[in-house]
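Ticket closed. Logging final result for Lipoprotein.
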Amino acid sequence: MKPITKTTTCFTFILFLFFINSCSSSNGKEPEITNPISLRFQFKLKSIPKELNGETISYLLKFYHCPNITAKDCYTPISIQSHKNTKQIQSSIDQMNFHGLAPNQWTHLSIRIEGIEKVYGKYSPGHNPFWIQNTDSFSKNPNITHEFTFVSQENLIPNRKQEELASKFAPILVFHKDKKYLPTNIEKYANYFQPKEYTLPNKDIRRKTTGQTTWNYVEFPDLNETEKQTHLYYHVRYANATVSGTQKEALPGFRDNGNYWYGVGNGDMVISYWIWYDWNEGPTKFGNIHQGDLESYALLVSKEGKPKRILLTGHDHILLDTDFRNINSLKNHPILYVAKGNMSSDGGNPTSAYGGYTVKLHAGNALFNYISDPWDVFPSFDPENSILIIPKNLSEKDLTNVKIGSGITDKTATLDDCECKDLPEPTRYVDARKMIKGQIERLVAWEEPGWVNQPADKDPDGHHKVDPKLSSFFKFQGRLGKHPRSDLRIRELHQYGESPENAPFKTNIEQHYTFESPKTDRSYTDREGNYGPKFLGDDSTPQK
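Final structure:
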């Protein structure tokens, strides 16, 4: 560092006293800090939305010492400083310069803009907080600069194009003929939407990162005998999307699903789908039992609308991410299989691209594995034992001769790179007309939560009008169902699981969150078996 003048030394000493005081008051104990470093901060705001005129902006700085991000004390800041701008926002640009002190041993710094709550979920300032990792460069040039530029969080793809794509790739769903809970819709609960709060489990990472101790849920009445129409929920966006908190410099657990932004990129798009079930009963009679279930899959398509990859999630994992040619489809509609459980349980509704196989699941420990022995049991494409729910734009005639299998005659070439040599199912053609149980009666576009029934800014359609029956669901952050958290009841021999996080911006550990593009071959393996490809296809596999 450069030599320090007497004036700077005095200023630094005053800041040092303030720094020590702020650390002591925020953490309850005085941290061991030596040789603090003086830093100069320069922050700019650009494209500020008009809604923020008259608001006062402040910057919250949190310094962390976290050389090992898995350490228990990683999430305790060693310094917290707040710097408030004395001027109110009056235009589309703003800036603030100030000096501050940093502990010389900090590893991570988060910089959060505060005072922008009015536009949360509508306009993003980019990563907020913005993260910086300490490097040697700060000792040579102790300046931290960053420019926050606000962008609209509206979807850049016209509604009509979204609907066309969602309809084009809607699934053919295959179930065991005795499956108890078939997919329905959430609109039937519109009159019963009353958000509540529940206490987060002690292990929830939000307790460490944001100090959050509660989360939201809604409890629904049992309406199993009414309004059983199947609706399919979808969200189409450009694949080039970013969520705040996903910087490589960020500490884990600071992801903010309400702060995201889109980019056109190369034009590739992701179509995300959610299938709603009223109940999850399985995969055994022991558990996992909860009200509400949202199962999801996503497609990566080119700007011309050609399918490239498919990604399926379930059990809080990515079950499959593979080339679209490695699954069966009919006129672009993927054929997807929904599992039952064992011990006569109805199952946890996970979705697979293949039928006629099982996966044994982990129940948490060896005792529970022995007691419950949970399985996913996927149906075959079989007119005698399975039923279908099909898209509305398919007819019985379309299902006269459905191809099941790769269609490739050279089986050696098909299986060489596939973990499926034990399941070499020959290609067959099935008359599936008698399997049809019902149709997907309605496709429902999931609107961006912050823009529901708000005047448009950049929206290509010029509006954000939403059916009143859906607006509460679209804006809600929390869990859907009367079982908001896991609950083991030994006397009942039942495990009550967590009701699902609301779509499309889920915060569970699927790593899908609708923002992860299908991008690389991967599949999930459990206690016995996997959800990976059962064959590898080519351009002849999709059935036209």
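The chain has seven helices and 32 strands. No further action required.
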